[in-house]
Fold this sequence. Notes:
- Helices cover 46% and strands 16% of the residues.
- The chain is an alpha/beta fold.
- A hairpin with a 6-residue loop joins β7 and β8 (233-234).
Amino acid sequence: MAGAAVAWLFPGQGSQAVGMGKALAERYPVAARTFDEANEALGFDLRALCFEGPSAELDRTVNTQPALLATGVAALRAAVEAGMTAEPVCAAGHSLGEFTALVAAGGLELADALRLVRRRGELMQAADASGGMGAVLGLDVEAVERALAGTGLVVANDNAPGQVVVSGPLAAFAGATERLKAAGAKRVLPLRVSGAFHSPSMRAVAPDLAAALARVAFHPLRIPVVANVDAELHREVSDFRTLLERQVWSPVRWASVVRRAAGEGATVFVELGAGTALSGLVKRILPDTRTANVSDPASLEEARNVLR
Length: 308
């Protein structure tokens, strides 16, 4: 990574896919050991779930969150083993990915983070199932907020220009969709989630999540992390006890997170873990910025070329 000012990015729910991490684990022993650590920390075969599925089990929030975290850490460790050793200017993750970013930055031990997001997934999965989420295509966040006024739905993720995710009661989606389309939305697509994540309905999760966060040891950050909740650069790990609790019921300000990382000097954004969703969002937010991803040995090699 010499010569490039890099930001590390870690994906959240929606990026999972059966087979994720398998090729990296077969090629890089350090990636394989990451899944061994995950199995030991959680007490079940997370490796098999990531590598072999079934998809329906991998897609359960309680499983998706530790699976994505383990895969992201495995990808990072493989990249470092392959010679990508320079420290980034900052790290960030989308929703669940913020926990992975904290592991990458030295703020959380892998085993602790895995158990923590397993608990987070249990709480979110058990929350009120009468809510849902939808992706709004073709409107900016301000237009979406105006259209949603009084509907009961809120902005959950400001992902990129023209891609905003909304969240709230399922019963409110039909009326809100009509208003969004009248405002110019090209499409409103329902998302496969078990509740209204990143909305006020997740406030019920907050006390139990805060208790879980209080039981975990946090360590000084080696790398600053840009937080979802405020899109600010945080150098003190103690900030995240509150930020991670707030994050579950607050909007993910992803477009602002990416712009803040660029403001800190990042010129290359490297997505580590399953899929390329965040790389695509970065291109929409900052079209002239270079991106790379590390999800398998081939993409790792391509990332090395981008970073030369």
